[in-house]
Amino acid sequence: RLPPVHNLPSLRHFLRQYQAQILLPFELPAIQCAHGHASRHEVRELIALDCSLAGQPLLRPFASASRRIGQYQLRKLRPLRDERLIQRYLQAVENGQASAWHTLVYGLTLAVYSLPLRQGLLGYAHQTTRGFIYSAARGLGLSERECRALFDTLCASLPPAVEALLAQPAAA
Predict the structure, then answer these.
(1) Which of these, 23, 9, 114, 110, lies nearest to 62 by C-alpha position?
(2) pTM for this prediction
């Protein structure tokens, strides 16, 4: 369970916990797996991965937002009619067989557009961290300098974490 946020130290603590409990063990590996399945045109495996994420208790607080964002992004890929994997995954989502977790759609998008996985993983981690910081900044009265310092501190460990993930065989 992630801690509440009410000041800069609690935001820092929240983000460290988020990175340790959600981003590094679940989100980045999910993106990597989705990318691999999409690259190999493995729609059944992508759907199975989608279903397995629903069973993760730590992801439940994020499930509704993740699915909403993922479904929105997946619908934006609908015009790619010649991309059979996208069409089959979209159909599975529309039939209720899959949820379109945003991380899976992100990995799928990286593969479909032949975007580098390493940069995609790091970009996702940075974008997510930045999003949390700036969504809390106004309510907490944080300055731009404090936001940037927090971002720099929290993101310093991400490149080695991404390299370690990529050095492992991808989970199925």
Answers:
(1) 23
(2) 0.93
